[in-house]
Amino acid sequence: MIAMRAVVLARGLGTRMRAADPAAVLDPAQATMADAGINAMVPVAGTGRPFLDYILSGLADAGFSEAILVLGPEHDVVRQRYGPFGLGKPTRIRVMYAVQTKPTGTADAVLAAEMLVAQSPFVVLDGNNYYPASVLGQLRRMEAPALPAFSARALVAGGVPADRIASYATLDIAEDGSLRGIREKPPEDAAGIPRARLSMNLWLFDKTIFQACREVPQSRRGEHELPEAVQWAVSRHGVRYQTFPVSAPVLDLSQRADVAAVSAALAGVEVRV
């Protein structure tokens, strides 16, 4: 069954985005959203459109019919934009909302959307990231569960700072392409870039993920985290995740310093929500 629903994780506190950065030049509208820590609503590309418009447009381009936004109860600015009377009311993709009352981790965020995805396969993506529509489309057509395995070099070439890449979770992949595990800080090459394939928080799930999200212990950060829930599903329940290699850029809007680079990369991109 092909996945038609995408769950966008947009509940985070935006701690890194809210942090002051004198070198980052933001206009008043960008600064307002950055100060609030609502990364997905930061206007980009000089169009006045929030980053989330580009994410939703990319999902529609990839063939998704529904997007479930996982938000906090305080995120009225998002609901107002995409509501029936909002300036960003979608015409190509249906937008629904799931509320994660407290920011207790990405595994809990997935659980917040459980009732809306029902028994169907669904894709989960990070609301701080803009993924190529071609990758999203390939993922939604695979048999669940699955995930893309991104090339670290391609991510760096696409503008993600190398020091940030080194902090991403890496994938231990078997010869048949199945996921053996997820680990932190792998060996690096001479340029400080991880040799292993990376997770960019883009997943195709079936209903087996919900049990793992409920069972996974808190991380060292005191949260229930999605990569650890996937590892739990693999190790404890024998769930098989198929991977496929991807050498394509992903835009990451996590910090104020990212706004200019992401805006430049999205300049000229047609947005049709």
- Number of helix segments? 12
Count of DSSP strands? 11
Distance between the termini: 25 Å
Mean pLDDT, rounded to whole units?
A: 93
Please tell me what the overall shape is.
globular
CATH class: Alpha Beta
Q: Share of helix among residues?
A: 25-40%
* Major sheet: 5 strands, mixed
Strand content: 15-25%
Structure description:
With 273 residues, the chain is an alpha/beta fold. It has one domain (5-266): Alpha-Beta Complex (Spore Coat Polysaccharide Biosynthesis Protein SpsA, Chain A), CATH 3.90.550. The protein contains twelve helices and eleven strands. The protein has helices spanning 15-18, 28-36, 51-61, 76-82, 106-112, 114-117, 133-140, 152-157, 162-165, 208-215, 226-237, 258-266, and strands spanning 5-9, 66-71, 94-99, 122-126, 129-130, 146-150, 170-173, 179-183, 202-205, 242-246, 251-252. The protein has a five-stranded mixed β-sheet, sandwiched between helices. Strands 5-11 form a two-stranded antiparallel sheet. Helix 5 (106-112) crosses helix 11 and helix 10 (208-215) packs across helix 11 (226-237). The chain is globular and about 50 Å long.
